[in-house]
Amino acid sequence: MKILGIYGSPRKQGNSEVILDEILRAAVDSGAETKKIYARDLNMSGCQECGGCDKTGKCVVKDDMQQVYPLFEEADVIILSSPIFFYGISAQVKAVVDRAQAMWSRRMLKKPREQWKNHESGRGYLIAVGATKGENLFEGVKYVAKYFYDALDMDYEGGLFYKGLERKDDAKNNPEIMKEAYAFGEKIVKGEG
Questions:
Q1: How far apart are alpha carbons 2 and 63 in whole angstroms?
Q2: CB-based contact 47:148 (threshold 8 Å)
Q3: Which of 66, 84, 94, 114 sits between 20 and 30 A of 11, alpha carbons compared?
Q4: Cα distance from N-terminal residue to C-terminal residue, the chain
């Protein structure tokens, strides 16, 4: 099993990052192969909405996303992580999500319309961490994840969501969160996540 972790935090070793690290550690311990992308390190722009991918399913913008598209295609599982900023995912990882438009175009070109609701490329998960405790804190980002994975022809399977984590080490210093993250990684590999 190949698992791709997409790190969306602009802050190194922040809460969403250490949680995803623990999930991927469990996945490796369970026999999976993992790769990591740090959105903050990508030299790229957001989607230009130029329509360049409409006829080919390939993005025409030449930047670091060209290295990411093959990783999307080879992954059986993709885990997207992000802190919550103003009830949304970080700008860095939102650019990655938006650039999945090329994958959406590719999917539409390859699959007959009646098969669009069938996802055949794997499973996707979301890890989201917010400092506040708002009732609807994760509602918007769950939709972003659902449609991101739809563009990648993957089923969105939910994830882990934590409120009230503001200081950089809040997750790392919470044994229950780290235990839950490790168990989640094991479940993903077993197909139970």
A1: 24
A2: no
A3: 66
A4: 14
**Angle (nearest 5°) at CA 171 between 184 and 180:** 20
pLDDT tens, position by position, 48-63? 999 999 999 999 999 9
* Secondary structure E strands in the chain: 2-7, 33-38, 77-83, 123-129, 155-162
142, two tokens: 């769950």
Domain count, the chain: 1
What are the pLDDT digits (tens) for 125-164?
999 999 998 899 999 999 999 999 999 999 999 999 999 9
Domain that holds residue 49: 2-190
The domain that holds 34 is classified in CATH as 3.40.50.360
- Sequence-distant (6+) residues with CB within 8 A of 116 are 107, 108
Residue 89, CB-side half-sphere exposure with 13 Å CA sphere: 28
The rounded distance, in Å, linking the Cα atoms of 159 and 78 is 11
pTM comes to: 0.95
